[in-house]
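User: I'll paste a sequence; please echo it back and then give the predicted structure.

Assistant: Echoing your sequence first, then the prediction.
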Amino acid sequence: MSLTIECQTRPEDRKPNALRREGFIPAALYGHDGANSVSLAVNAKEAVTLLRNAKVNETVIEVKIPDLPWTGNALIREVQSHPWKRTVLHLSFFHVANAEAAG
């Protein structure tokens, strides 16, 4: 099963709590451009659906960023969630080259 998520770049003036109120989750993509990272915003409902089907550090997913000329494979490296509400607060993706879907 192929997993895909579409992200948008996060404007620098947007605060994470404002994004969450609008139905987005702040995220970051690391390793796609050397040491550079990019700040992203992911639709909260899509992220929750993705997390039901993916395992952290195991499942390779396709990340699409229409605002940038980049589409590639990544692992979900970290999921930050509220301690007792269990709502997702932040996602971290890490680019993997030549990855084969692992689960």
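The CA atoms of residues 32 and 69 lie 11 Å apart. The chain has a mean pLDDT of 88.
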